Amino acid sequence: MKTLMARVAGYESMKARTMAIARGELKPATGEATVLFASVETFAKVLSQCNRRLLALIAEEKPNSITELATLAGQSRSQISRILKTMSLYGLVEFRVGEQGRLIPQVAYDQVRLDVSLTSAP
User: What are the backbone angles phi and psi of residue 23, rounded to the nearest 5°?
Assistant: First the structure.
């Protein structure tokens, strides 16, 4: 089972960490959060019940395109594209290039663990 490690971090903390990684000054340790969310609310929106159902649909049905996924989900292609783009920014969805350049969505993780401090502000 592949688990995404995530945590809530304030904007300045996220920015500083991203820049340190980009400069090669920081390499996340094994088991350390690799994805940062600006707030618990952001996490909840990205992993809403509707979006989790979409991830399950991708994992179960293995659609061969975004259009096929939209049909399976009963939603418009543009709506599905927007959702997938957001989820891909957080590493939840990856794309493989299929026949005729079609993007094939794939679920990158089976579960996610969120680390939230209860005693300090992000």
Answer: -80, -5
Q: Give the domain range for residue 79.
A: 3-115
Q: Which of 3, 31, 7 is nearest to 17 (CA)?
A: 7
Is residue 120 situated within a structural domain? no
* Helices 49-61 + 77-89 axis angle, to 10: 100
66-73 vs 49-61: helix axis angle to the nearest 10?
Answer: 120
Q: Is residue 56 part of a domain?
A: yes
pLDDT of residue 81: 96
Residue 116 makes CB contacts below 8 A (sequence gap 6+) with 7, 8, 40
SS3 3: strand
The model scores a pTM over 0.85: no
Domain membership of residue 122 (yes or no) is no
- Of 5, 4, 7, 3, the C-alpha closest to 115 is 7
